[in-house]
Amino acid sequence: MFKSIKHVKVSDEIINQVKTLISEGRLKPGDRLPPERDLVKEFSVSRPPLREALNSLVAMGFLEIKGKRTFIKSITTESMQDPLSLIIKADTQKIFDLIEVRKAIETWGAYHAAQRATEEDINQLKNIIEEMKKAFESGRSWEKQDADFHLGIAQATHNTIQTHVMSTIYDLLRESMARVLKSDRSRVKKLLDQHHKIFNAIKNHSPDKAREKTLEHLNYVESEVKASTGQKE
Question: What is the domain class of 10-72 according to CATH?
Answer without folding.
Answer: mainly alpha
